[in-house]
Sequence to fold (286 residues):
Amino acid sequence: MKFYGHAQEVSQRIVKAFQQPETLPKALAPIFIHRKDDVPCRKWSWHNQLITALCGTADARGFRQWEDAKRKVKKNSKAIWILAPCVKKFKEDNAGGEEKERHVLFGFRGIPVFAVEDTEGEPLPAGDDRYDSWVRELPLMEVAQAWGINVGTYTHHGSNPLGFYRFSGSGNQAVMLGVENLSTWAHELVHAADHRVTNLKGDKWHKEVVAELGGAVLLECLGMNQDADLGGAFSYIEQYARTTNMDTVRACIQVLDRVCECVTLILDTAESTAQSVQSNALAAIA
Fold:
């Protein structure tokens, strides 16, 4: 695998472009993911889908749901605990004297579910493989695999983030994507690199500017200039820079070294992974 450009040079070129935002291309519109497969956990909140992704599965269900699918949970399987809202219903009269039902959230309760890998029985119907195939073809997917990151997608709704990277106390990691944009994928992968480089230290604005600028630099290094979405990156960074009373360029300059470390780590990992695959292939032929 050959990468074009170096992180330091590319990042400085992007920061220079940010000095004249009016010349940047218009931000790309997000392409939202809408999964069509009939898997119950696809309808869960993104928080609960994240929990299942951190546990390394794309399909988790309760005992009865697995029984309905003519499968059973294997003995001694460990449950995954998701959170279900606890809601109370109240009836009250509105200003017009009409009775109205009101729902009040007062907490959450844990519900045990089990991964498909911990069940046995009838084969499951073929699902919608479109987005799974898309994930497998993501650039630098081999880096996520080398770092043990579970990557998945979820149906995006209005209040959901476009994507997220999370890690658990047990060391499990996951990236979940609600859009097909490569800029979002690169953003979350830089978060993962930042976790390895700095343990994600610092304020939220600092981490988000690192991820957004780093994602743009990463895609530019790969020659994916349009996917780098410099217009969108500028707008995103500008929002976070305002929270700390900085202009966009100054915010980028403050995180430049950290950005370069993250991007370099990703590209070096991809390079070493490619070399390892090539060495194994040659060894198999010999």
In short: The chain has a mean pLDDT of 91. The longest strand covers residues 99-115.
